[in-house]
Every structure is written in structure tokens, then in C-alpha cells.
Amino acid sequence: MKKLMNTLFITQPDVYLSLDGDNIVLLKEQERLGRLPLHNLASVVAFGYTGASPALMGYCAERNISIVFLTMNGRFLARVIGASKGNVVLRKKQSLVSENELLSARIARNFITGKIYNHKWILERMTRDYPLRIDVAEFKAASQLLSTIMLSIRECEDLERIRGLEGQAALIYNQQFDSMILQQKEDFYYRTRSRRPPLDPVNAMLSLAYTLLANDTASALEGVGLDAYIGFLHRDRPGRVSLALDLMEELRGVYADKFVLSLINKKVINGEDFVSKENSAVIMTDEGRKKFLTAWQSKKQEKITHPYLGEKISWGLVPHVQALLLARYLRNDLDEYPPFLWK
């Protein structure tokens, strides 16, 4: 099993990253803030615009350590990775399947089946754990609707119809999202999804969680020899990691959404951790971002039993396992891609 390596998060906007031997050095106005060994890092995520030295980027690219640059509010800017090391036969098969909409649909429907299944069981868990704090009948009705949509998707071989059914399911699930916020209702609420920019604290956290998850998923795909930019559900678009967005669909709810809800409901994050900008954008403060990233790293270390493998692994390795299962399916080692089904 792959070892779960660390991610180094640089949260200050004016820190420059450089190389010293086998170490990354953090500089601020020529003053050294820190020096860390690179041998146990899987990726570096930097918030801000200052940048990194060519020597550091070259060192990391050679050793498969990705460097990701985000804006201060978590919007993706760029990702530096090394040369593709994957099996050319596997990538050729990936491209051929991507060009065939019928074959793509047969994989895409499993991604979305996993997503809707997991959303359904998030709602079911709420009815079990908080029956006095939510409208159980409303949650049960939503869960039943998701089951009906899942049945339709399992037989669907048309990409556009799969996208349409996924949109219906997302609407049903999102209508219950605000009810799953059980604490700090004066500061945290969910009305609709807003991305660029996020217009409330919940959307600000969701956007950051999805960005981090997409980066981890893209790294996992590259690690097993697949091309993160050639998707099946999300079609090709320059600069978009389409396959990473495909694969993370089934993890959005159980990995990112539940993480954000737990930060709110456990009062790890509060209203003081956000500020509003003149353009109505809501962003996290430096302190809020540090709390968020610390909790994200802890989440990745938590153990679960993988539903398909039956093995105990950490949450942080789930994208790697799913990427490996997808590669095995494309190699014809599996009859069907098994999505991550959480319960």
C-alpha cells in the first residue's frame, strides 16, 4: 500500500520558496523563516503570488513532488509537476476510451452513482444521529428520490443524460445542506453554491476543500500512470484536470462536505475566521486558514475500512486507491470500475 506522505502548506502571501540541498527554504524579504526536508513530502501548496525558485521546481519535478499555487482565497492558479512517468499503453487506452462517448458514459455513470449513493447516506446518517434537530420526513423523502435517480443512472449510457440526472440529484441534496449545519447558524448558512467569488463562509470553505481534494486526486492519478487532464464525464478543456474532477465526484460529499460541516458543528471554525471584501467575496483570515489546513491534514490521517478492498487505510489514501482501481479497469483487470461507496 502506498505510504501517505505529507503536504506542506504555505499560508503567508509573501513567502518565497527556494532550495538548499535536499531541503525547502522559506524566505520572507531575504529572512529565513524555516527549512524543511523534502524527502517526506508529496506536495507543496502555496497561497499567494511570491513564487518559487527554478531550482526548487526542478528538484520537486524530478522527485514527483507537486507544487500548487493558489490565491489567498484558495482559487487554483497553477500546478508544477514533472514529466509523465506512466505506462504509455495505459494512457493510450485512456485516450481511446475518452474519445468514445459510450465507453466514457459507462465509467462516468459509476462516478456519479458513487456520488449520489454517498450523498444519500449522508442524509440517512443525519436522520439516525440527529432525529430531533432535522426534519426526518424531508430527509427521508430526499433520500428516496436519490435512490430513484441512482437506478436511472445505472442503466444510462448517454453522457448528457447522466449529467442531467446528476444535476437533479445535486439539487435535491443541496436543498438539505443548510439543515445539516447544526451550530453557529448566525454565521454559517447555505443558500446556493457560489464559487468565483464565494459569497459566504460555507462556500469559501467548500471551495477550498474541493480545490485541495482536486489536487490530491490529480496527484493520485498521475501516480498510477493516468493523465489527470483526460476525463470521461468532464470533457477536455485546456488547463482543467478533467479526470481528477471525474474521480473526486464520489468523494465530494463524504470527504469535503462532511469535513466542512464538522468544522462548523464542532466549532473549530467560527465567524471571526472570515472577512468580506469590497466585491462581496468572503475569504478566510490567516488564522482561519491555518485552522482549516491543520484539520484537513488530521482528516487525511483518519482510518477507515475501504468498502471494496476491505482493508483499513487512511482517508488521505482513498484517492490513490480509487485511481489504482480505475487504472486496473482500463487495463481490463476488472470488469467494472468500483466507485467508493461509503455508509
Overall description:
- With 343 residues, this protein is of the alpha+beta class.
- It folds into two domains: 6-80, CRISPR-associated endonuclease Cas1, N-terminal domain (Ribosomal Protein L15, Chain: K, domain 2); 88-331, Up-down Bundle (Four Helix Bundle (Hemerythrin (Met), subunit A)).
- It is 46% helix and 15% strand.
- The chain has helices spanning 54-62, 88-99, 101-129, 136-154, 159-174, 201-223, 242-248, 252-265, 286-301, 318-330, and strands spanning 6-10, 16-20, 23-28, 31-37, 41-47, 66-70, 76-80, 274-276, 282-284, 303-305, 312-314.
- Strands 1-5-6-7 form a four-stranded mixed beta sheet, sandwiched between helices. A three-stranded antiparallel beta sheet has the order 2-3-4. A two-stranded antiparallel ribbon has the order 8-9.
- A hairpin with a 5-residue loop joins β6 (66-70) and β7 (76-80).
- The model has no long low-confidence stretch (mean pLDDT 88).
Question: What attributes characterize this protein structure?
Answer:
343 residues; alpha+beta; Ribosomal Protein L15, Chain: K, domain 2; Four Helix Bundle (Hemerythrin (Met), subunit A); 2 domains; 4-stranded mixed beta sheet; 3-stranded antiparallel beta sheet; 10 helices; 46% helix; 15% strand; magnesium
Share in β-strands: 15-25%
Give the strand tally.
Answer: 11
Helix content: 40-55%
Number of helices: 10
Low-confidence stretches: none
What is the arithmetic mean of pLDDT? 88
Rounded to the nearest angstrom, the distance between the terminal CA atoms is 23 Å
Q: Characterize the main sheet.
A: 4 strands, mixed
Q: Reading side by side through the largest sheet, how are the strands ordered? A: 1-5-6-7
The secondary-structure element order is: EEEEEHEEHHHHHHHEEHEEH
CATH domain topology of the largest domain: Four Helix Bundle (Hemerythrin (Met), subunit A)
Instruction: Estimate the global geometry from the Cα principal axes.
Output: globular
Number of domains: 2
> Which architecture of the largest domain would the CATH scheme give at its second level?
Up-down Bundle
The Rg value, from CA coordinates, equals 20 Å
CATH superfamily of the largest domain: CRISPR-associated endonuclease Cas1, C-terminal domain
CATH class identity of the largest domain = Mainly Alpha
Report the structural category: alpha+beta
Binding site for Mn(2+): 166, 234, 249
Family: Belongs to the CRISPR-associated endonuclease Cas1 family.
Organism: Paenibacillus lutrae
GO biological process, one term: maintenance of CRISPR repeat elements
